[in-house]
Amino acid sequence: MPTEIRVPTLGESVVEATVGQWFKQAGDAVAADEPLVELETDKVTVEVPAPASGVLSEIVVNAGDTVEVGALLGAIVDGDGKAKPATKKKSPPKSAETEAKTKAEAKTETKTKTETEPATPPPVELKELVREPHIREEVSAAAMPPSPAARKLLAERGLNPADVKGSGRRGQVLKGDIIAQAAETLLVREPRPKPPAPPRAPISPEDEAREERVRMTRLRQTIAKRLKEAQDTAAMLTTFNDVDMSAIMKMRKDYREDFEKKHGVKLGFMGFFVKACVLALKDIPAVNAEIDGEDIVYKNYYHVGVAVGTERGLVVPVIRDADEKSLAEIEAGIADFGARARDGKLGLHEMQGGTFTISNGGIYGSMLSTPILNAPQSGILGMHRIEERAVVRDGQIVARPMMYLALSYDHRVVDGKEAVTFLVNVKESLENPARLVLDL
Predict the structure, then answer these.
(1) Which 3 state secondary structure label does DSSP give 8?
(2) Residues 6+ apart with CB under 8 A from 16
(3) What is the C-alpha separation between 198 and 201, in angstroms, rounded?
(4) Residues near 35 by Cβ (< 8 Å), separated by ≥ 6?
């Protein structure tokens, strides 16, 4: 009996995937747990292993097809060599004598069936049921008429008294009822439909011949959708500051070798930034919060997402409970995430549940940027390149390794004062690393 290959559970809120590529062809021998096909979801790329050893007898879906969780991908049969894919069996050719006999039998059977079966009754004519329109009853004369002030307001606004729910005696419509209903109507507005995307402007055939059209990957589509939703939903604003990296750079230079020998991981900058942000989040909890309907959810845990660029796009693995981790544990986690993200080996659970995000555009040479929120989070810190700049220290103009910092935040949750204070706290912690050690 063939063993089915089906789409596995892909994680929370992921219900479908796109078939990336098959690593085996129909007829190839496969071993148990050997990767067979690559599935691309809107968050990660997943390799589906062989559920059993044998021969890949059938491939049901091709590269580029969209499949749902539990859908059939292919089948494996017992065997250990090159097997041909399953094909439909053909019937052996019939002789002329056999064919003539079959036709004669079929003709006789048809004739007998026609004679024995009763005639089909004529179709019954169905009368169309017409629903009578519902006629709204007018307010009876016995009902309490609107108050004089309400009657005047109804006439001014062209309203029917029956359309307003009265709160007076015997349902009398008062002036306050009309005003309250008008206010309710203004608050409950229908959302405006989004205009369709404008068509692409026409181009010359000469230019079109030199273009290449490539379908967006599911990950790129999700990135585009989420970033646009963040811009449309949040009241996003960015505040800036700069930080003198002299103290951090000196500490790295002095202890880099000892740190790596003891912990087996390099001492980078990101660990210091994660620590500094956690301290600032504890002081300014609004930056670690999110909006849920009409509520603000303040999170008393600190799951810091670290943006990692890959060939497929940007992914944000999450360092959970960053406040409970040492600098070495944070650096080890970041290094592991970076390596597995580039290989497409991150799990969905490792990219969910973040409360704050750090993005380092400085590794690509960015001097200044305005990062976009990772919804539903309310804050994201943008790091940039370090460069020597002239600054004034103790009345003297000196060169210092400076970095611009950018905090984008949701103004619906975070006030301007809180955002500026948060960024100043991060700056002070980085310029005086003893604060990070002493938890000040």
Answers:
(1) coil
(2) 41, 66, 67, 68, 69
(3) 9
(4) 23, 47, 48, 49, 50
The string of DSSP codes covering 58-117 is: EE-S-TT-EEETT-EEEEEES-SS--PPP-PPPPPPPPHHHHHHHHHHHHHHHHHHHHHS
Helix axes 416-431, 246-263, angle to 10 degrees: 60
Spatial neighbors of 330 by CB under 8 A, at least 6 apart, are 270, 271, 274, 275, 319, 322
244 is a catalytic site residue: no
b vs e for 380-398, b when ≥16 Cβ sit within 10 Å of the residue's Cβ?
bbbbbbbeeeeeeeeeeee
pTM for this predicted structure: 0.60
Residue 173 pLDDT grade (very low, low, confident, very high; cuts 50, 70, 90): confident
Quickly count: other Cβ atoms within 10 Å of residue 191's Cβ. Answer: 5
| List 65, 321, 415, 439, catalytic entry | 415
Number of Cβ atoms within 10 Å of the Cβ of 55: 23
In one letter, which amino acid is 26? A
For residues 47 and 17, give the distance between their C-alpha atoms in angstroms, rounded to a whole number.
12
- 357 vs 365: CA distance, rounded Å: 19
Q: Give per-residue pLDDT as tens, 129-167.
A: 444 454 444 444 446 777 777 777 788 777 888 878 887
pLDDT digit string, tens, across residues 321-349:
999 999 999 999 999 998 888 887 888 78
Catalytic residue at 415?
A: yes
Q: What is the pLDDT of residues 174-209, one digit of tens each?
A: 777 777 777 666 555 555 666 676 788 888 888 888
33, 321, 343, 411: the catalytic one is: 411
